[in-house]
Amino acid sequence: MLLTPFRRLWASWSRWRKRRPFAGGLLMILAAVEMVLAARLPVDLMLHLGIGAVSTLVFSGMLVVLGLVTWFTPNQHVITGSFAGFIALGALVLSNLGGLVVGTLLALVGGGLAFAWRPTARPPRRERGRRRRRKSVAAAPPPSLDG
After folding, report:
1. Percent of the chain at pLDDT above 70?
2. What Rg, from alpha-carbon coordinates, does the chain have?
3. Any long-range contacts for 98-101 (C-beta under 8 Å, 24+ apart)?
4. What is the distance between the alpha carbons of residues 25 and 63, in angstroms, rounded to a whole number?
5. Among 46, 70, 119, 141, which is least packed by CB within 10 angstroms?
């Protein structure tokens, strides 16, 4: 009995995740986290160091926003994937080698996955109901001829 709500929650999570470029958005957010963790400087010191340190925060913030936009508005996947690639290349030059190159690679792969994602076509509601009925009829055991 306790597993039923959990299974429903897991099924709805799976449906939500499969209808969007989830992996691309996740990699964009992980790239941002990696860039910030590679810098790990106090904000006062970042401001003192200048463009190299501050750009890490700017690029990371933009990558987090792009990852979230990719998740919550999947029809913008081409734009967010393109921007993530441009930001990754900019971070490579301006932001401590883009989080020691790992952040740049994560952002490039995430942007590429988001850019290349295509939604799967879902059948209309009437067709889905018919398919379920056909499967249940096909799964029913055949009537016995013994009489």
Report:
1. 82
2. 23
3. 98/35, 98/59, 99/31, 99/34, 99/35, 99/36, 99/37, 99/38, 99/39, 99/56, 100/38
4. 9
5. 141
Q: How far is CA 131 from the centre of its chain?
A: 30
Q: Model's pTM, two decimal places?
A: 0.76
Q: Encoding tokens for residue 71? A: 């998740």
Closest CA to 109 of 19, 28, 37: 28
Tokens in use for 99? Answer: 């989080």
Matching residue, tokens 């999947």: 74
Query: Two tokens at 8?
Result: 């429903």
DSSP states of 124-135 as a string? PHHHHHHHHHHH
* The length of the chain, given as a count of residues: 147
Structure tokens at 139: 């799964």
